[in-house]
Amino acid sequence: MEEKPLLKVEGLKKYFPVKKGPLGRISGHVKAVDDVSFHVNEGETLGIVGESGCGKSTTGKLLMRLLSPTAGTVEFDGKDITTLTNDEMRKVRRDIQMVFQDPYASLNPRHSIARILEEPLIVHGIASKKERREKVKQFLEVVGLSSYHAKRFPHQFSGGQRQRIGIARALMTNPKLIIADEPVSALDVSIQAQVLNLMQDLQKEFKLTYIFIAHDLSVVRHISDRVGVMYLGKLVEIADSEQLYEEPLHPYTQALLSAVPIPDPHFKNEQIIIQGDIPNPADPPSGCPFHTRCPHKMEICTKVTPVLDEKKSGHSVACHLYNEQAGNDIKQLEGSV
Ligand code: SF4
C-alpha cells in the first residue's frame, strides 16, 4: 500500500523577537524552530525528541496553529493551514487535536468530566445534547473509565486517569491527527506503559496518526514508526525507529541513546557524556548548532551549517561527518583564509 502523507511540513520557522531597553527595541531573535521539514504518513506515529528548549513543543504548537509561523508551510490533508483564516482553521482543528503533558493543568478543575468532554463538540457545533451525552459515555469507556465518572471532577482522579480523560477529550471530535506533547512525562513509570499501550490500541481502533513529542528516547521507542531528533530549533536526524535506535548517525543522537538504560545485565552500554550546556538560543553558535558540545567537531563545523540530507533510504542526518562535500568545503575554507 502506498504511504500517503497526512502532514507535510516545509521550511518551518518560528523566531521570537528579543526586546531590550525601555523602548522595547528588538535586539535579536530566538530561533525556536529554524527551518524544519518533515512529513507524517497516514496512520503512523512520528516521535519528536530532544532536550528541553530544542523547539519540539513550539513545533507542536505551530502545527496546531496555536502559534503563527515566521516562515514555512504546514500542509494538512493537502491544504496549507498556515494561510487559513481563523474561521477556516477552527474547522481544521476538529481533525487535529492535542494531548498535553500535565493532565491536571489542562482540565478545568471547576468543570465536571462530562462538561470537559462535551466542550470540543459544543465549540465545533457537533451533535445534539443527547448525542453529546452518549459520546461522553462511549469515550470514557473507550479509554478504560466508566460512564459514572462523567459526574465527577478532575481532582477526584489519579494522574493516569486524568491523562485518560485528556485522551478521551482529544478523541471526541473524531480527529485524524493527535499531537501528544510529553503525554506521559508527568506520570509514574508504572502508569506510563499503561497510557502508551492505550494510545497504541486507540490508534488501531480509530485509524489515528500521532505526533508524539518527548524528551526521552526510551519513551518514544515503542510507539514510534519514525523518530526525529531536534537540537536548538533544528531537526538534526530523522529515520525509521529501528534504524535510528540500531544505527544512530548524528553525534547528538548517539549521545542521547547511550544514556538510555538497556534491560540486559550482560550488555554494557558506554555512555557518551555531552559536555557543556545547551547554548543560548538567542545567540546560537555559528555553523553546526551542536559544535560547542560535539566530540567529533571539525574545522568546517564551526563555519558551515550542515543540511539535513538523506544518507540511506528514509534516514536523514545533518552532520558534516557524512557529507562527501565536506572535504571540498574544508579545502575551500582553507583556501579563503
Ligand atoms: Fe559534530 Fe560537526 Fe557533525 Fe556538528 S557537523 S554534529 S559538530 S561532527
Describe the structure.
The chain has helices at residues 56-63, 86-92, 103-106, 113-123, 129-142, 159-171, 189-206, 217-221, 241-246, 251-258, 324-336, and strands at residues 5-20, 25-41, 45-49, 71-76, 79-80, 96-99, 177-181, 209-214, 226-231, 234-240, 309-312, 315-317. It has a domain at 7-94 and 210-336: Rossmann fold, CATH 3.40.50. Strands 6-7-8-3-9-10-12-11 form an 8-stranded mixed beta sheet, sandwiched between helices. Strands 2-1-4-5 form a 4-stranded antiparallel beta sheet. A hairpin with a 2-residue loop joins β11 (309-312) and β12 (315-317). With 337 residues, the chain is an alpha/beta fold. Iron/sulfur cluster binds at residues 250-251, 288, 290-291, 294, 296-298, 301, 306, 319-321.
Q: In short, what is this structure?
A:
This protein is of the alpha/beta class and about 325 residues long. The protein contains 11 helices and 12 strands.
Q: What key attributes describe this structure?
A:
12 strands, globular, Rossmann fold, 11 helices, eight-stranded mixed beta sheet, binds iron/sulfur cluster, 337 residues, four-stranded antiparallel beta sheet
